[in-house]
Write a structure and sequence with these properties.
Length: 232
């Protein structure tokens, strides 16, 4: 009995010492992880690391419980294993949400940059048109990334932006065509002014101008063939 008592005392001391050693080791590892987290300079990376570290510690704590507590019933062990699986799923959901939010922020920042650039670009220029296209692309990406969408909703968003791309393209085409018409009109007006007093030459220039205007006419969107011929 005395020997058994001594054995139990020794075993208890060993368990206490082992637990103390493991606690010290765990504390040192936590300090190391916290120190590594502190040196991350990018705020977004720090937030992501905090999410990962939080779930890592929860899962490791549950795994230690499974390993160290020998009196756990079968039901208790199964419950802990299920909890570990749920925690891993929660971590993935949290990381997916974080990544989606970060993507949205990055897209919004790029869109703001483009809007600032547009303020300093000449209206009607090719650069303005290109920046407007880029802005639409960023806005479309932000809307698609902003929330969970069904396939039907994603299709509706893409159709909406496809129309805006087409409208912008048509606007650019119309502006370029108008510039060409204005330049042509100025050219013919200059020729008419230079031919002052020569009625025959002026008439020839005017006829040439009308022909050039007719050749430059394009059928407008949604304009029927009959309406286009009448306009010609």
């Amino acid at each position: 009995m005395e020997l058994q008592e001594q054995t139990n005392t020794l075993r208890s001391e060993m368990i206490t010492e082992t637990k103390k050693w493991k606690d010290e080791e765990l504390s040192a590892l936590k300090e190391l992880e916290d120190a590594m987290l502190a040196i991350i300079t990018t705020e977004s990376e720090k937030q992501k690391a905090q999410i990962e570290l939080s779930y890592k510690r929860e899962i490791e704590s549950l795994e230690r419980k499974l390993k160290e507590e020998t009196t756990l019933t079968k039901t208790a062990r199964e419950a802990i294993l299920k909890t570990i699986e749920i925690k891993k799923q929660e971590e993935q959901i949290a990381l997916d949400k974080f990544n989606k939010e970060q993507l949205k922020k990055e897209i919004e920042q790029r869109a703001k940059l483009i809007e600032t650039q547009l303020e300093g670009i000449k209206e009607g220029s090719v650069q303005e048109y290109q920046l407007k296209i880029k802005l639409l692309q960023e806005q479309e990406a932000a809307e698609l990334a902003s929330a969970e969408h069904t396939e039907e909703m994603r299709l509706a968003i893409k159709m909406k932006y496809d129309k805006q791309y087409n409208d912008l393209f048509q606007q650019q085409e119309d502006e370029l065509r108008q510039k060409e018409m204005d330049a042509m009109r100025v050219r013919f007006e200059t020729q008419i002014a230079e031919a002052y007093g020569n009625e025959e030459e002026i008439l020839r220039i005017k006829m040439e101008q009308k022909k050039a205007e007719l050749d430059s006419l394009h059928q407008m969107e949604d304009e029927s063939d009959e309406a286009f011929r009448l306009r010609q």
